[in-house]
């Protein structure tokens, strides 16, 4: 990789001038200009400072170091590595803590790592091959054998999903083919795009939140995302509580950590 070109692309993508980045990284515009032109070779510490100043994801920081000829600074552990055992425990606690509301954890590609028992209400009736650890939640959402036939506002929700797939061009192309050309329906909440999903407990109106491990220094951990589905009205809250119930909560306590 051409380090000067890669650095310049990362900087311009974030709409930073050379002066802006130089000030953030504690160097001079002249020095940064020399680095981007290839006239100066930065040391490892300078590359790390530039990557941090650009607020790059950990994976891209490693890529920038490799482009400059240095070893990666951030490990990328397998999720079942003993070093991440506390993370697996924490994920189990978080998923159980969201009951009776559905919640799941996915990796950077949208592949399912774990989910709580309430997520079964979301996935009821979908093709078996689209559900379970290792399957892709974006494909689950938009595939004709997945949630799509039960989503009342498919046009809005599909755009919400596709907008998150900029780094997954092949998957985005596949899922775009599943989405019909529909006019957006009326009745948005105004502050969020709800998922209007038909279920055995009636229509569920759900908002989503995404949480990450903000202080992670491991690539795998930094790329995990917890997505929780929260009720957008009282009827949905009551339906979720009724669907999970005490036995569902007990099952989630047993199953959530094992799903990983």
Describe the protein's architecture and organization.
One of its GO terms (molecular function) is DNA binding. Pfam families: HTH_3, MLTR_LBD. InterPro entries: Cro/C1-type_HTH (IPR001387), Lambda_DNA-bd_dom_sf (IPR010982), MLTR_LBD (IPR041413). This is XRE family transcriptional regulator. Helices cover 45% and strands 12% of the residues. The relative contact order is 0.14. It has a 5-stranded antiparallel β-sheet. The chain is built from 12 helices and 5 strands. It folds into 2 domains: 65 residues, 434 Repressor (Amino-terminal Domain); 174 residues, 2-Layer Sandwich (Beta-Lactamase). With 260 residues, the chain is an alpha+beta fold. It starts with a helix and ends in a 5-residue tail after the last helix.
Give a quick rundown of the structure.
This protein has 260 residues and is an alpha+beta fold. Helix content is 45%, strand content 12%.
- Integer average pLDDT: 88
Q: Give the SSE order as H and E letters.
A: HHHHHHEEHHHHEEHEH
CATH class of the largest domain: Alpha Beta
Main sheet: which strands, in order across? 2-1-5-4-3
Strand content: 5-15%
Structural class: alpha+beta
CATH architecture of the largest domain: 2-Layer Sandwich
What is the CATH superfamily of the largest domain?
A: PAS domain
* Distance linking N and C termini: 35 Å
Helical run tally: 12
CATH topology of the largest domain: the name is Beta-Lactamase
Whole-number count of domains: 2
Major beta sheet summary: 5 strands, antiparallel
Overall form: elongated
The tally of beta strands, per DSSP, is: 5
Could you list the spans in which at least 5 consecutive residues all have pLDDT below 50?
249-260
| Helical content (DSSP H or I, runs of 4+) | 40-55%
Radius of gyration: 22 Å
Organism: Streptomyces griseoruber
Protein name: XRE family transcriptional regulator
GO molecular function: DNA binding
Domain HTH cro/C1-type: 7-61
């Amino acid at each position: 990789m051409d380090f000067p070109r890669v650095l310049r692309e990362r900087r311009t993508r974030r709409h930073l001038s050379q002066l802006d980045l130089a000030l953030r990284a504690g160097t001079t515009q002249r020095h940064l200009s020399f680095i981007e032109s290839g006239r100066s070779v930065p040391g490892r510490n300078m590359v790390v400072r530039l990557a941090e100043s650009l607020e790059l994801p950990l994976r891209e920081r490693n890529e920038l170091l490799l482009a400059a000829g240095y070893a990666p600074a951030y490990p990328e552990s397998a999720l079942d590595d003993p070093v991440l055992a506390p993370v697996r425990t924490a994920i189990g606690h978080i998923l159980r803590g969201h009951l009776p509301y559905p919640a799941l954890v996915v990796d950077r590609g949208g592949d399912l790592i774990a989910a709580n028992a309430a997520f079964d209400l979301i996935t009821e009736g979908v093709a078996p091959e689209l559900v379970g650890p290792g399957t892709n939640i974006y494909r689950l959402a938009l595939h004709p054998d997945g949630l799509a036939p039960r989503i009342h506002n498919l046009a809005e929700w599909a755009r919400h999903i596709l907008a998150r797939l900029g780094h997954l061009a092949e998957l985005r192309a596949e899922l775009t083919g599943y989405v019909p050309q529909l006019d957006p329906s009326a009745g948005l909440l105004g502050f969020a795009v709800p998922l209007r999903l038909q279920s055995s407990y009636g229509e569920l109106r759900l908002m989503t939140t995404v949480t990450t491990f903000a202080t992670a220094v491991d690539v795998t951990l930094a790329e995990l995302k917890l997505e929780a589905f929260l009720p957008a009205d009282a009827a949905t809250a009551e339906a979720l509580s009724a669907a999970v119930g005490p036995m569902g909560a007990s099952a989630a306590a047993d199953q959530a950590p094992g799903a990983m």
